Amino acid sequence: MRRAILSVFVLLAAAAALSAQAPAAFAEKPALLTSVGQSADIEMVKVLLSRGKVDHTADPLVTAAKLPGGAKTLVLAVGGSSKGLGAAGISTEAEIDRAKALIKRARELGMKIIAIHVGGEARRGTLSDAFISLCVPVSDYAIVVEDADKDGLFTKLASQAKIPLVKVDKITAAGVPLAAAFK
Predict the structure, then answer these.
(1) Which terminus, N or C, of the chain has the lesser number of Cβ atoms within 10 Å?
(2) Where are the beta strands (DSSP E) in 55-95?
(3) Distance in angstroms (rounded) separating the CA atoms of residues 108 and 9
(4) pLDDT tens digits for 73-132?
């Protein structure tokens, strides 16, 4: 009995903590998912959107000229991969330029922007940090796997930009706040 009561309190506390950080649904469907940094994390975010029943398309190399393409929300899977950039045939600088133009166009169109980093601590480093520092401050909302924020970078960027930041303990848990962002 004690365990059941304790479990209920733990679940309620976790839900309260999440709801204190997560905004009410603000994003509209359909979403357009792209990668910023060309990491394989975009594949996980696709799964999270599908499981959350969020109507979306994915284009890891979408350009500003292709927006909105019917999409109302831009989801940025943020995480750098030198291997992914190489496979896409683009440099870090070209990816930054693409991301800046994409974000600018999304803002001009009145699209909401969600930044999500599911790679955790393993996907952090100079390359990823450049993309994270670009995307988080211009987003409306950010979601991160908690161990990626050990140094407080996401917390600092979200705080300075005055945007909600939700931290989750594992990749699969990121699906709940991601889906909850959509009306």
Answers:
(1) N
(2) 56-58, 73-78
(3) 44
(4) 999 999 999 999 999 999 999 999 999 999 999 999 999 999 999 998 888 999 999 999
Secondary structure of residue 117 in the 3-state scheme: strand
Joined together, the tokens standing for residue 147 give: 């161990």
- Please give the model's pTM, rounded to 2 decimal places: 0.87
Measured CA angle at 179 (ends 31, 162), to 5 deg: 85
Query: Measuring CA to CA, how many Å separate 115 from each of 3, 8, 13, 40, 86?
Result: 37, 31, 25, 15, 23
Strand, coil or helix: 35: strand
Residue at 40: amino acid letter: A
Domains of the chain: 24-180 (3.40.50)
Tell me which residue of 127, 109, 139 sits closest to 38, measured CA to CA.
Answer: 127
Angle, helices 153-161 vs 126-135, to 10°: value is 20
HSE-up (13 A, CA, CB side) for residue 83:
4
Band of pLDDT at residue 4, cut at 50, 70 and 90: very low
Class of residue 113 by CB neighbours under 10 A (exposed 0-12, middle 13-18, buried 19+): buried
Token look-up 């909600």 returns: 164
Indicate the angle between helix axes 126-135 and 92-108, nearest 10 degrees: 10
Instruction: Give the DSSP H/E element, type plus range, for residue 99.
Output: helix 92-108
